[in-house]
Design a protein that fits this description.
alpha/beta; single chain
Length: 419
């Protein structure tokens, strides 16, 4: 089954640029390009013969064009060249830049890569500024899953962090039972398209083993020649054990008997191959900023199954973290991002799981819980954050109620709000 993706809506806006679509392995990049852009020539850099053709660009490409297209045809439609896994070729930036400069009047280009292009050490070369558009495709969001599995549900405009969230949540209440059923599927099988298509627990278990083995045995070695894969795997397991809590490089280094600098480099490598992400502790005043602490989350909550029970609080927090990070990526990603996603902690070590803020305001504060707590002082930290909206996101089904200055909302009503 092909899942329609929200990224499809923007692809055709950049016809005269080189499109780079990056994202985690098996998130659907190749399917998206083949289905929506219909490439005329496809090269896969995992295949030796295709790598030879690419390294001889633009000569090989111009020969292909002359054999298959006439000048009359090129005026009506420029053929599209798709280069898959382009990051696996050394010096690919300079090759593609030279080819684009010589052939852009005749051809269009799209390329994909499963690793973060801008982090890869072998990617030294031209920045491609002015020639390229860089887009990220994450695994399926819950909103995309709804769009494909229950198109009869009318989805409101996706929430982007600053606008009030409660109005969007209220619009989904009539569909709560259907949304709950879809959420239970999504929660059980994770957000990778293949798993959501199969919806088979045995397949998922084997997929997780194979996927993470491929990441460490193949992608990690591609990106970081000489890395000790076993050591990086141990760092990964320690990070998964600490989901929901801040991690300590010193503690990791002492446990594994390595230097903090080595642990830091291993963490960076994991962020590259797993597309894991961190969120920092944040308060409004820099003068009150307590020491920089971070929490680590893998890009999909199904990876959390290695270290916790499927209905655990840490897995649920990972689910909400993925929804927020991926859904708000256009607002929080990059150096000029208008918003920041973080967590709040005061001097009494009272903590709020997630806050969304800019330089002067906290727009939303969100606490994740498996079940509702009805005591008036159940969420003391949430009452002190001074956010415009205070929300308790619950794994418990069918909750939408107000308690003092905060709203308690079930996850099936919150998740559709985020792209």
């Amino acid at each position: 089954m092909y899942f329609q993706r929200h990224l499809s809506e923007v692809l055709l806006h950049f016809k005269d640029k080189i499109l780079f679509i990056s994202g985690p392995r098996q998130s659907g990049k190749t399917s998206l390009i083949r289905h929506d852009l219909l490439p005329d020539l496809e090269l896969n850099m995992d295949i030796a013969q295709d790598r030879i053709i690419f390294k001889k660009f633009p000569e090989t490409l111009l020969n292909w064009y002359d054999e298959n297209y006439t000048e009359k045809h090129s005026k009506s439609k420029k053929p599209l060249v798709f280069i898959d896994e382009i990051h696996k070729v050394k010096n690919w930036r300079n090759i593609l830049k030279g080819c684009f400069d010589k052939t852009s009047q005749k051809l269009r280009f799209v390329a994909s890569g499963s690793s973060a292009f801008h982090l890869r050490k072998q990617d030294q070369g031209d920045s491609l500024a002015g020639r390229a558009i860089w887009l990220n495709l994450f695994p399926l969001s819950f909103r995309e899953y709804i769009r494909n599995r229950a198109p009869e549900i009318n989805l409101e405009k996706a929430w982007k962090g600053k606008s009030p969230l409660l109005e969007a949540i209220k619009s989904y209440f009539p569909h709560q039972k259907k949304l709950r059923k879809l959420w239970e599927e999504y929660s059980q099988f994770g957000s990778f398209p293949e798993n959501l298509d199969n919806r088979d627990p045995i397949f998922l278990k084997q997929w997780l083993i194979d996927y993470q083995s491929a990441l460490l045995d193949r992608d990690l070695k591609d990106l970081h020649v000489g890395k000790d894969v076993e050591r990086v795997w141990n760092v990964y397991e320690l990070l998964l054990e600490s989901i929901g809590s801040t991690y300590s490089l010193r503690s990791i280094s002492e446990t594994l008997n390595i230097s903090p600098n080595t642990a830091q480099k291993d963490l960076l490598a994991l962020k590259q191959v797993l597309w894991g992400f961190e969120i920092p502790v944040c308060v409004l005043s820099k003068a009150k900023q307590i020491r920089k602490e971070k929490k680590f989350y893998p890009i999909d909550f199904c990876f959390n199954d290695y270290s916790s029970e499927k209905n655990s609080g840490s897995r649920f927090e990972n689910q909400v973290a993925c929804l927020l990070y991926r859904g708000l990526y256009s607002e929080i990603g990059g150096r000029l991002a208008p918003l920041q996603l973080g967590f709040y902690r005061d001097y009494q070590k009272r903590e709020v799981d997630f806050v969304i803020r800019d330089k002067s305001n906290i727009f939303s504060a969100l606490e994740c819980k498996m079940k509702q707590k009805h005591a008036s002082d159940a969420y003391p930290a949430l009452q002190t954050v001074n956010a415009k909206e205070n929300l308790v996101i619950l794994e418990e089904e069918g909750i939408f109620e107000k308690n003092r200055e905060m709203w308690s909302v079930s996850i099936e009503l919150f998740a559709p709000c985020l792209e």
